[in-house]
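Render this sequence as a predicted structure.
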Amino acid sequence: MATHPAVAQDTDPSVQAYRQALADKDGNPGLLMIDRGERLFRTAAGPKATTLEKCDFGLGPGVLKGAYAQLPRWFADTQRVQDLESRLVTCMVTLQGRDAKQVKTLPFANETKNQSNTDFEVITAYVAAQSDGMKLSPPTKHPKELESVKVGEALYWRQHGPMDFSCATCHAEDGKRIRLQSLFNGLNKKHTDNVMSSWPTYRVSHNAVRTMQHRMWDCHWQMRLPDIDLGSPAAVALISYLTKQAEGSTLDLPGMRR
């Protein structure tokens, strides 16, 4: 019986053709999730029966255009560097009166159970999409913003857990892959731009839109580490570092991935 050598997904012509066919944004299922996110964003909810329309993502209350492109950033009201999702939790608590612990209990859809996107995921995707076509320009003027980037870089290289893995174990060299799935190299500007400019992204294998906080959680799970808390300083620091590496790239949202 004839055997065929394994071909990485980035070089397999059939996979390339498939991805090109999906590249048309009008056919991206993530758009449906963004529409749903907009409805939820503008719908009164929580104990205070209030919408999220006055949430300040860094450019002023209610200003969404360009906000995601300038995150993570320092927020004086929380005295923290926050990314989109940690800031969204803040707004759900302060504006809508929700309990932070409850909001973070089940923020992501479980693909093994074929669950639809959670409300939290689609609202995140909607807010992010308002920066579509803009360049990533995370601010680093505040000392804490610079510190977050540096902490993220240190975490990127730190080996820990039962398998002694770090982010760099998989993402610090060209040509690496898991099975047939190519892995991006976080030290390669082109690779990092491609990834960070297309997240949140619709993941075909998950049948759901995935956010960057989910990416952090999923990578930690694959390294057999304890679940990383949504919006934790460690997760935000990693995102700060990766976003800084991709500074200047143009957002193309929602993206689409395997």
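Summary. The longest strand covers residues 73-75. The radius of gyration is 18 Å.
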